[in-house]
Design a protein that fits this description.
353 residues, alpha+beta, nine-stranded mixed sheet, three-stranded antiparallel sheet, 26% strand, globular, disordered N terminus, binds adenosine monophosphate, binds magnesium ion
């Protein structure tokens, strides 16, 4: 079992700060003092099962970082499916119930993703996550019988949404929802909104390796965000130069266990109930819309290269992507060619002519 460790995200922050020269020790400080106007204010928090860092520059930076941390903690408590602080936990336990505006929005986006991805993204995946032990951390390969039973509960048609009174009903006993595939992207988008509403024009939101950059660096140049290598926590597939967007990566390496020499990870293919095994080992999505980026990083990972390529060709105005296959072939969509550098050979995915 391995999770993204503190070091990785500090490295990512290290790559993303101006000039990339900030020392790790400095980024570890909970609050960096705001002596000069352009000095960053940064805070760190452990939420949604990962280390997160929010960094803002300029006037109002301190206030905005405080608000952002409070918002992360609020959403963490609300959206968790594993602690009774949250409404997701409660609707799962009770077979339905009321949901807040945040959860209803995520439900709407989840249904949209289900349609668009032809079922690769399925918010009712929770019973299968549970069967593999990803909810309790008591990992085990379920029997075929158990898995089929749980998979039968993964069914969007049995999810009854009452949009007027903001509630949900599960038509089958044992059904449950899981926003784990989109919660971080949604959170980073909400934080980027907090920044903009307060007039903070430069910042960096790093939610456990899922990055959302606000504006540019203070010198007007783009942020540099490293895309982690699946095989080596300290290496990068390549580096992206970006402004004002989310950069969100999914990979089986982020959460997995091993049994009898086989690795089982946390991104489940709803057509089988097994961890997705369609040839991709890392998918990064770049989009202005963090919720979409998060949902699609999970979905394209499940789709595999050919379906993912085709999906992008049909949605190229909404996002760009970096895809790494298990035999180390790197594919980058046309929109990123000028903004992505890598030591690997880059295969460009072009829009269909
Ligand atoms: P990510 O790291 O964004 O790819 O999200 C992985 C998380 O999404 C898992 O830990 C589950 O909570 C959830 N998940 C796994 N498989 C699916 C799926 N097929 N559709 C929707 N959510 C999923
Ligand atoms: Mg995701």
């Amino acid at each position: 079992m391995k999770r993204k460790c503190l070091l990785i995200f500090l490295m990512m922050i290290g790559m993303a700060v101006p000039g990339c020269t900030q020392k790790t020790e400095e980024t570890k400080d909970i609050t960096v003092s705001n002596l000069e106007e352009q000095e960053p204010v940064s805070q760190e928090v452990f939420a949604m099962d990962t280390y997160m860092t929010v960094t803002a520059y300029g006037e109002n930076a301190e206030e905005v970082v405080d608000q952002s941390i409070a918002e992360i903690e609020r959403l963490d408590q609300l959206l968790t499916a594993t602690a009774d602080t949250g409404e997701v936990y409660n609707v799962n336990r009770n077979g339905g119930g009321n949901l807040s505006e945040d959860s209803m929005y995520l439900m709407e986006r989840s249904l949209e993703l289900y349609q668009d991805t032809e079922g690769a993204f399925n918010v009712t995946i929770f019973p299968v996550m549970e069967a593999w032990g990803f909810v309790s951390d008591e990992f085990a390969v379920p029997s075929t019988e158990e898995l089929q039973k749980k998979l039968a509960l993964v069914n969007i048609d049995d999810l009854k949404i009452n949009w007027e009174d903001s509630s949900v009903d599960f038509l089958e006993k044992g059904m449950a929802i899981d926003f784990g595939g989109i919660a971080k992207g949604y959170t980073s988008t909400k934080i980027a909104d907090i920044f903009r509403n307060a007039g903070v024009e430069n910042g960096l939101i790093n939610l456990g390796g899922n990055v959302h950059v606000v504006g540019t660096k203070t010198d007007g140049t783009k942020w540099r965000v490293g895309v982690q290598s699946p095989g080596d926590e300290e290496a990068y597939i390549g580096v992206l130069s970006v402004a004002d967007c989310a950069v969100i990566t999914s990979g089986g390496y982020e959460r997995y266990f091993e049994e009898e020499g086989i690795t089982y990870h946390h991104i489940i293919d709803p057509s089988t109930g097994y961890p997705a095994n369609n040839g991709l080992i890392s998918v990064t999505i770049v989009s202005k819309d963090g919720t979409l980026a998060d949902g699609l990083s999970t979905s394209l990972y499940i789709m595999g290269l050919d379906r993912a390529k085709e999906f992008w060709q049909n949605h190229s105005d909404e996002f760009d992507a970096i895809l790494l296959t298990e035999d180390d072939k790197l594919f980058v969509t046309e929109g990123l060619v000028d903004d992505f550098t890598s030591e690997l050979e880059i295969n460009v995915i072009e829009k269909e002519k």
